[in-house]
Amino acid sequence: MRKQLPKDFVIGGATAAYQVEGATKEDGKGRVLWDDFLEKQGRFSPDPAADFYHRYDEDLALAEAYGHQVIRLSIAWSRIFPDGAGAVEPRGVAFYHRLFAACAKHHLIPFVTLHHFDTPERLHAIGDWLSQEMLEDFVEYARFCFEEFPEIKHWITINEPTSMAVQQYTSGTFPPAETGHFDKTFQAEHNQIVAHARIVNLYKSMGLDGEIGIVHALQTPYPYSDSSEDQHAADLQDALENRLYLDGTLAGDYAPKTLALIKEILAANQQPMFKYTDEEMAAIKIITSANGCALITASRKRFIMVMAQRDRQLPAFTVSARRRSQPGLRQRIGTGPSIRVVCMTC
User: Fold this and answer.
1) Cis omega (within 30 of 0) on the bond before 48?
2) 20 to 30 Å CA-CA from 56: which of 67, 105, 158, 171?
3) Cα 310 to the center of its chain, rounded Å
4) Is 334 exposed, middle or buried (0-12, 13-18, 19+ CB in 10 A)?
5) In whole angstroms, what separates CA 135 from the centre of its chain?
6) Domains, the chain
C-alpha cells in the first residue's frame, strides 16, 4: 500500500553562512570566533568553502531543479554588524536582500537562522554565551533583522545550542576549546535559553506575520541495562545535553529533577551552580504561555549507551566518552560508580 506524505510536508536542504559562503574577508565582513582558531590549527580554511556568497543563484537553481521547496539559510551576524554591534555594513545587508530575492525567484521558502556557530570575534573574546553584553547585542541584532527583512516569514533563533555550549566548555572541540568546565556549559545553556526567549517575545511584540523557533540537536542516551545505576548514568548524560533546553523551551521552567541532576554533576566536579534570575525565568515562561514558537528539531544519527560500572583504570565519578573526534575523552560527570559513555554514530 502506497502512503502519501501530509500535504503540508515540505522538503529542502540546509546551509550555514560560515560553512558555505566563503568570502570571509570581502565587503566589510567582520571576524568570528573560528577565524583565529582555524588559522592557528592550519587544517581548514573558511575560504572559499562552497563559494555560496558568489554562486548562490546557481545553488538555488539546483535546489529548485531537484524539487526542493524550502531551504535553511543563516545570516552571518558579522556581515551585518562587523563588530557584533554598532555600525551596520550596508554591503552585507544588500547581499542578504539579493539572496532572499533569489530564493523567491527559484520558488524556495527560506528558513533563516540568526546564530549558527558564528559569534562575532569581539563578543567571543568577552565571553560569548557567558557574556551579558553578548546577549544584549544578540537581541538588538535580531531586532534589526526582523525590521530589515520583512520578506522572511520563518525565523530560527539559535542553531543547535547544545552543540555550542558542550563543545566550547566540556569537550573542547569549539573555541575557546576548554574541557571539563560543566559550570560554564550549564551557564551558557541557560543564557542561550534566555536569549531565545527574549527574541521570541520581541518577535511576538512586534506583531510580525510569521513564525519563529529554535533548532535543537538532541542527543539520545540509553541505559546499558535496566539497573538503577545505569538508568541514573543515562539521566546524568541527558541532563548535560538535553533536559535544560527542553525544560526551558517547552515547559517554561526548570524541573526539580533536572536541577538536581545538574547539581550532582557540578558537585562531583567541585564547580558552582549556574546563575539565573527571576526576571530571566519570567521571560522563559512567557514563550510557553502563548502560541507562536515553533520547535524545530535537528535529528542526529547518533545514540549513546551509558553504563555505570566500577572501572579500576578510571577514578571514581568519571566519564570515559568515546567520540570520533576525541577518543578516550575523560570527564567527571556524577556521583556513585564510574560511568562509561560510549557514543556511536550510525
Assistant:
1) yes
2) 158
3) 34
4) buried
5) 14
6) 12-230+240-252+276-301 (3.20.20.80)
Cα 276 from chain centroid?
20
Do 74 and 116 meet the contact criterion of CB atoms below 8 Å apart? yes
Q: b/e for 35-53, b at 16 or more Cβ within 10 A?
A: beeeeeeeeeebeebeebb
- Closest by CA position to 181, among listed 190, 194, 192, 172: 172
CB 109 within 8 A of CB 103: yes
Q: What local confidence, expressed as pLDDT, does residue 204 receive?
A: 92
d(CA 73, CA 113): 6
What pTM was computed for the model?
Answer: 0.86
Beta bridge partners of 101: none
Residue 2 contacts residue 53 (beta carbons within 8 Å): no
Grid cell in block for residue 208? 510580525
* Structure confidence by residue, pLDDT tens digits, 1-56: 788 888 888 899 999 999 999 999 999 999 999 999 999 988 889 999 999 999 99
Beta sheet of 302-308, edge-to-edge order? 220-223, 302-308, 339-345, 318-322, 329-332
Q: Is the pLDDT of residue 94 over 90?
A: yes
